[in-house]
Structures are given as C-alpha cells and as structure tokens.
Amino acid sequence: MDFIGAYSWPNLRYLLQGFWITVQVAGLSILFSFIIGTVLGTVRYARVAFVSRTVAILVDAIRNLPLLLIIFFIGMILPQAGIRIPTFWAAVVGLSIFEGAMISEIVRSGLVSVDKGQIEAARASGLSYMQTLRDVILPLALRRMSPPMVSQFISLIKDTSLAIIISLPELMRNVKILSGSSFSYVIPALVFASLLYFTLNYSLSLVAKRLEARQI
C-alpha cells in the first residue's frame, strides 16, 4: 500500500474531480426526482380515475426494476436506437426516474397520513379540493415525509456509483482507473473515496435526524 504516492496532489485532484461529478449528478438527480416524485405521488393520492391507475402501474414497474438496468438502458441501449444522451445526463435521467418513483411512494404515504379532520375543516372553510390539497394537505405531508425523503436522497448519492457502467467519470470510476495504474494505490484510493462518501452522506443523515426530531 503506497499511501504517500496515492495521495500525491495529481492523484487527489483526479479523485476530487470524480467526486465533483458525483456531487453534480447527485444534486441534479435529487432536484428532478423530488419534482417527479411529488407530482406522481400527488396524482396517485388524488385518485384521478384512469390517470392515477396508470401512474400507479408505471411507478410499480420502475420500482421493481434494478437501477443498474435503467442506467444501462438509457446510456447504452438508447444510443443503439439513435437516441443519444450525453453520459452525464444519462446518469441523471436514470437516477431521477428511479428515485422519483421511490419518492412518489413516500409522498403518497405522507399525504395519506394527514388527519382527515384537518382536511374536512379546510373544505368546510370554503376551500376547493385542489386548494385544500395545495395549501393544507401537501404542506403538512411534506413536514412528515422529510426524514424518509432525506434518507432516500442518501441512497441516491450512493447509487451514483452505478453510473460506472456507462463510463461516467465519477468518483468510483476514477478510483478504478487510479487503482489500475498501480496495485499499491487500490486501498488508499478506496479509503479516500470512502471518506468522501461518508462526509457527504453523514451530513445529510444529520439533517434527517434533525428533521425527525422536530416531528416528535
């Protein structure tokens, strides 16, 4: 194990460049999956006849597929059909679709958990169903679903490593390439990558714990 050689500035910079790609992919995927999940979860909760049922089938189908397969399909199969998406965005799209489906279940469960008395009070005050959903149910549900949603985002960050299959130059791919240059770099590179993942995910876990404490 050559920690000194592995941790030379050029090597660390190379790993940090990969980590920056990981952070960008994770950040965009969190944003898009939150939007997708909120929309899909709300539609399922609203029970709009044909639409809600179609969304439910779509969400269940996506949730029961391996994320690796989704990323591979978008990054490797679609180009064969003439639909070319840059590797970076292929990873973002794959993660956003899969995590959006997962988050939609969190959103739906959060909406269902809102006390019916509060809903009836809002309707009795003259609010329409959509106004009640937007101004009363959704804000209350978001507070309750925040801890599990943050936990899902932590999983998303770790799942960015699966983009290695489409050669995205994220952290784990750069670890693999650096390790390939010298076997003595394998463990030092993995240790450094672990520290980066831990720092990012632990920070988010503290946010989740704080949000959870506010619910008590």
SSE arrangement:
Elements: H1 3-6, H2 9-46, H3 49-63, H4 67-77, H5 87-112, H6 116-124, H7 129-159, H8 171-181, H9 186-215
Descriptive overview:
It is found in: Cell membrane. Residues 19-208 form the ABC transmembrane type-1 domain. It is a multi-pass membrane protein. This is Glutamine ABC transporter permease. The protein is 81% helix and 0% strand. The chain has 9 helices and no strands. It has helices at 3-6, 9-46, 49-63, 67-77, 87-112, 116-124, 129-159, 171-181, 186-215. It is mainly alpha-helical and 216 residues long. The model has no long low-confidence stretch (mean pLDDT 88).
Key phrases:
81% helix, mainly alpha, elongated, 216 residues, AA_ABC_transptr_permease_3TM
Gyration radius over CA:
21 Å
Quantity of strands, as a count: 0
- Topology as a string of helices (H) and strands (E): HHHHHHHHH
Number of DSSP helices? 9
Shape summary: elongated
Task: Work out the helicity level.
Answer: over 70%
End-to-end gap? 47 Å
Strand content: under 5%
Summing up helix and strand content along with how strands pair, one would put the structural category as mainly alpha
Outline the low-pLDDT stretches. Answer: none
Mean of residue pLDDT?
A: 88
Mind summarizing the main beta sheet?
none
Family: Belongs to the binding-protein-dependent transport system permease family.
Keywords: Cell membrane, Membrane, Transmembrane, Transmembrane helix, Transport
Protein name: Glutamine ABC transporter permease
Transmembrane segments: 20-43, 64-82, 183-204
